[in-house]
Amino acid sequence: MKKITCNILKHRVFKKMVLVKASIAGILLTCALIHSGCGVYSFSGSVGSSIKTIAVPIFENETVEYAIAEDLSAGVIDGFVADNTLKVVGRSKADAILEGKVTRYERVAYTYDENDQVQEYKVNITVSARLTKKDGGTIWEEPALSAYGIYKADEEEETGQARAIEKIAEDIVNKTVRDW
Q1: What is the spatial distance between Cα 62 and Cα 69, in angstroms, rounded to a whole number?
Q2: How far apart are alpha carbons 152 and 109 in whole angstroms?
Q3: Neighbours of 68 (CB within 10 A)
Q4: For residues 154 and 163, what is the distance between their CA atoms, to the nearest angstrom?
Q5: What is the structure's pLDDT at 47?
Q6: Which of 36, 53, 108, 115 has its CA at a distance of 20 to 30 angstroms from the CA of residue 74?
Q7: Residue 120 to residue 97: CA distance in whole angstroms
Q8: Number of H helices, E strands in the chain
Q9: What is the pTM of this model?
């Protein structure tokens, strides 16, 4: 009986060792596949290799919302700086110029509680934007890029604005450097 119990225990230990080795091999294979995929992709951008610098003048504002154009322009510039694909420079030194216009700004109630009290608001911002080469040729143009930011009723409206601006800025940067 002892010999049978001992063989069963050896068999169980052997099975566990095989499972552990298989798991380790699977993990190593997964890591190798993930790592090998990292060098395959390149984001040179839709602007092409001839565009290295970009100017972002302050967007125009067709709304009554004070300072929204300045905040949006700053958000877009911050997005390009963080992305680091294109260098942000003044208009006279730029290979491309991004011009934009805030065409719509709206704040609406978004969610309510059981007493019909507003719990969250939603800020909607729409812009038109155009990226042109220094010589005037259009690289891309979007007549209506929209984004929203949600904020709680006890927060400031600027919180919702900042969230919407961040989304629009990300869309503009992606359209410029990754949309091909």
Answers
A1: 9
A2: 10
A3: 20
A4: 16
A5: 54
A6: 108
A7: 37
A8: 3, 6
A9: 0.72
